Amino acid sequence: MEKFVNHIQLGYLGLLPFLGCVGWPLMVGSNSVNLEFFSFYSIAILAFMAGNLWHAGQQSFADAIKAVLPVIPIPFLSFLPIEWMLAWLGASFWLVLIFEKATIQWQGYHKDYQKMRFVLTSVVFVCHILIIGMSIYPK
């Protein structure tokens, strides 16, 4: 368990910017800077999580594709309305978790880490839904 404690703590700390971006508009009103920060942070965390699935030389071609599938469309999402981009990002966090659970490594992870991954994915997904709602109905 001790080797996963830091990962669990860092995972929950990584939620703070997501939660802050949801709380900020509720306290001071919605603004475009908050929406941009949330989007960029979401992209960075998604890329990090998907990158953790990459095991060069140790995985099948199909598993390598799964590791990059959630992040390949990101540059093209900039041409879509922000709500569509956020919807893709929110759904992609679930996609990364599903792909991670299908790996051999998942079986060796401590149950607390597995639980944390589900909780983090759920909270991040809900934050995306809330931010989409705030961008549609800003006041």
Automatic annotation (TrEMBL):
Segments crossing the lipid bilayer: 6-26, 38-56, 76-97, 118-137
Going by the UniProt record, its keywords in alphabetical order are: Membrane, Transmembrane, Transmembrane helix
The record's InterPro entries line, in alphabetical order, gives: DUF3429 (IPR021836)
Taxonomic lineage from the root: Bacteria, Pseudomonadati, Pseudomonadota, Gammaproteobacteria, Alteromonadales
Q: What is an example of a Pfam family matching this protein?
A: DUF3429
What organism is this sequence from? Pseudoalteromonas haloplanktis
Q: Which domain of life is it from?
A: Bacteria
Protein's name according to its UniProt entry: DUF3429 domain-containing protein
Tell me if Zinc-finger is a UniProt keyword of this record: no
